[in-house]
Design brief:
Blueprint lengths: L1 H26 L1 H24 L4 H6 L27 H11 L4 E6 L6 E5 L1 H4 L11 H10 L9 E4 L2 E3 L1 H7 L2 H11 L1 H10 L27 H8 L7 H13 L2 E3 L7 H5 L5 E4 L6 H13 L16 E9 L2 E9 L9 E8 L6 H17 L2 H11 L13
Antiparallel strand pairs: 1-2, 1-9, 3-4, 5-6, 7-8, 8-9
């Protein structure tokens, strides 16, 4: 009986819908005609977009539109707009621009052996007031904790109930609990002192008039204190240039060079490295480098891994939000402890979930892959060993 009643009910409902549809069709032929015209117009416009390679409205909605951002910071933009690239290394710049594509962001490349800036994509962003570093602050915190003997390579720090991590795993997986605990153990004054030593809160460059110094808090941040400051940089503002300078210091074993960006023929001809200070961190670096390599091999930066290369770069991702805009960072350098070849920072900004550290790592991985293809990184290493300039715009290297 129940099945028969359900059948009769749905049959009656179906009849009512058919009658309503026929009535509506008879009453509104003009509407039906207009609808048909609209469908044809949409089909025509869609065909035109497909032929021209332009994205459809559906794909634009999926991508949260590049022109209308909910937060005012689009995910996609022309990041080369306004750049003066005449004195950039042309090979590095081309690789960076191609890898960045349509993303709204910046790429900074530095020679760690001299502090010479090889290329800056989106110079306005790279020299700006700075942004929260997110988890790219963790290598600096790790160095401070190792130097202060707060942790060693094998120290197991509690990160959850019945779960502990050592430094390598915490760096690989960017574990916030690990670095929050380490920051609390060191305290605000110690964390701030090492941040200053590593060049944060001061100008990284020499003779770069448009550069800003970023900033360090004078007291523990109200939002999370020194713990949150140590896990993803709460209260700190860092520029891509500063972060690239810090990566260069780790890469070369402790020499903090002034970042120099020669942009005239005279500056290029008379270039000479300028040392800001030397840090005795070489004994601590194997532990740090192991964690940064682990991040690339199987951690948060694995999207940058190059399966065609035996020797991988080292890096650290960062993902967070600031003033409603998402940030994706990746700080890295090409691995060679004798003659490190290039330090690279990628920063992405926007309003979609594509903007994150792993995406920035993917961009950097494409840059490294292209430079390996062109044999650029090997040539740079040989130049450094010979004491010659790392690049020359008139060079005959492959384009």
């Amino acid at each position: 009986m129940l099945r028969l009643s359900n059948y009769r009910f749905f049959s009656a409902l179906l009849c009512l819908l058919v009658v309503w549809d026929l009535s509506a069709s008879a009453a509104a032929p003009a509407t039906r005609k207009a609808s048909a015209v609209t469908v044809r117009n949409i089909a025509t416009r869609s065909s035109a977009r497909f032929a021209s390679g332009a994205p459809s409205k559906r794909s634009i909605r999926h991508r949260h539109s590049t022109t209308h951002s909910r937060y005012g910071v689009p995910t996609f933009a022309d990041s080369t707009n306004g750049d003066t690239a005449e004195f950039d290394d042309p090979i590095v710049r081309q690789a960076a621009v191609e890898a960045l594509g349509h993303y709204n962001g910046s790429v900074v490349a530095i020679d760690p052996n001299s502090g010479r800036v090889l290329s800056v994509v989106n110079q306005k962003l790279a020299f700006s007031d700075g942004f929260i570093p997110c988890s790219t602050i963790k290598p600096a915190i790790a160095l401070a904790a190792l130097e202060e003997s707060v942790i060693t390579r094998d120290t197991m720090v509690p990160v959850a109930r019945r779960r502990y991590m050592n430094l390598t795993e915490a760096m690989a997986h960017s574990n916030n609990k690990f670095f929050e605990e380490v920051g609390r153990r060191m305290g605000f004054e110690t964390v701030s002192r090492y941040a200053h030593l590593l060049g944060l809160g001061e100008l990284a460059g020499y003779g770069i008039p448009e550069e800003h110094p970023g900033g360090l808090p004078s007291e523990p941040p109200k939002n999370g204190g020194v713990a949150r400051m140590s896990s993803f940089g709460e209260g700190i503002h860092i520029t891509p240039l500063q972060l690239a300078s810090l990566a260069s210091t780790v890469a070369n074993g402790g020499t903090l060079y002034y970042a120099q960006y020669p942009r005239t023929p005279e500056e290029r001809q008379n270039f000479a490295p300028r040392i800001k200070r030397k840090l005795d961190i070489e004994p601590l670096l194997p532990e740090l480098r192991e964690g940064m390599l682990a991040a690339v091999l199987y951690g948060t930066a694995r999207s940058s891994y190059d399966r065609n290369e035996v020797e991988q770069h080292l890096g650290k991702t960062g993902t967070c939000s600031e003033q409603g805009s998402r940030l994706g960072w990746f700080v890295s350098y090409a691995a060679d402890q004798v003659h490190p070849r290039i330090a690279l920072v990628v920063l992405l900004r926007g309003n979609t979930h594509r903007v994150m550290g792993p995406t920035a790592a993917l961009v950097a991985g494409r840059i490294y892959h292209r430079l390996h293809e062109l044999n650029y990184i090997t040539a740079t290493r040989l130049d450094a060993a010979a004491g010659t300039p790392s690049f020359d715009n008139s060079s005959s290297r492959p384009q």
